Amino acid sequence: MLAAPALDDRRFGLNRRVTLPGPLTLDGGASLSQIEIAYETYGTLDADGANAVLICHALTGDQHVASAHPRTGKPGWWTRMVGEGKPIDPARHFIVCANVLGSCMGTSGPASIDPATGVPFAMRFPVITLRDMVRAQALLLDHLGIWNLAAVVGGSMGGMQVLEWAATYPARVRSAVVIASAARHSAQNIAFHEVGRQAVMADPNWRGGQYYESKEGPSAGLAVARMAAHITYLSEAGLTDKFGRRLQARESKTFGFDADFQVESYLRHQGLSFVDRFDANSYLYITRAMDYFDLAEEHGGRLADAFRGSKTRFCLVSFDSDWLYPTAESRAIVHALNASGAAASFVELSAPFGHDSFLLDVPELFRVVDGFLRAAA
């Protein structure tokens, strides 16, 4: 068992950052002269490099997939899936999770310093796509000496990156696990994102994105954007079961525009806690990248052509309560995979948590992923 050539420390959840030389040419025509990527690794790479697993995170996720977040102190966002005895196990896998291009947790994005000017890029950061994010991840894996992946795994936007990996680098991906995702954004998805972007840009502290040198950024607008988005991650049944129409406990009987209902208080907490760890401009860039994503369009308008001749094995999972990326979206991908001749398995799971089910306690999800990865190995 040997570590990857570029790695000299095998501590679990080691947080790393690397600056890679460019240029990285982007889909929009611009290029980045260099790229900084923040990532974490878990486990040890086999001598033949056959056990590497790349985990792709969702919109507001980060590289801290199974270790404590340095800002919030909270556990990693997928400790149910990643860890000792879990489906993705550092005892069996060499696990890599990288912060996506355009984000704010150490990878190049709007808050990064532009080497040409010495000040943050802000809205001068070039427009990015999910395929640009995947290209940056590929550069990182090249740097680590990882040429083939036992699996690429992700949910939501992470699942979109998995699909992009399988389409762009088919020879590097043996297995792909796509959870609660889609091959493109619907008009409704785009509409919800636009509401969030407008909330950010309507905040007077946004200042056209030039808020990094000021004491106050667009925290109110970003909090509202998070509140609106968070509603789409849940289900009506889940919200009703958790909150119903229950009021907050009050000493006074006077009601107004404070958080009178428990669900209001919950959403406000989600919004306020989010602004402590995320950058508003990054939110604008990444949501726009998700809206641009259309894998079929990238391949002449026919989704099956994205996977033509692929030897990658696919596992797709949807949830019956997910109305953000409903089961029909996963079925469309499965139909395209079948039409292309690719090997694909699919299951719809029952869970009350809505889109967030892939992050929560759904034991059947863990059994499906564990079984698929073991069979693929």
Overall description:
- There is one protein chain.
- By secondary structure, the chain is α/β, with parallel strands linked by helices.
- It has two domains: 255 residues, Alpha/Beta hydrolase fold, catalytic domain (Rossmann fold, 3-Layer(aba) Sandwich), CATH 3.40.50; 99 residues, Rna Polymerase Sigma Factor, Chain: A (Orthogonal Bundle), CATH 1.10.1740.
- It is 33% helix and 15% strand.
- It is built from ten helices and eight strands.
- A hairpin with a 5-residue loop joins strand 1 and strand 2.
- The longest helix is centred in the middle third of the chain and has 16 residues.
- The relative contact order is 0.13.
- It catalyses: L-homoserine + acetyl-CoA = O-acetyl-L-homoserine + CoA.
- Its main location: cytoplasm.
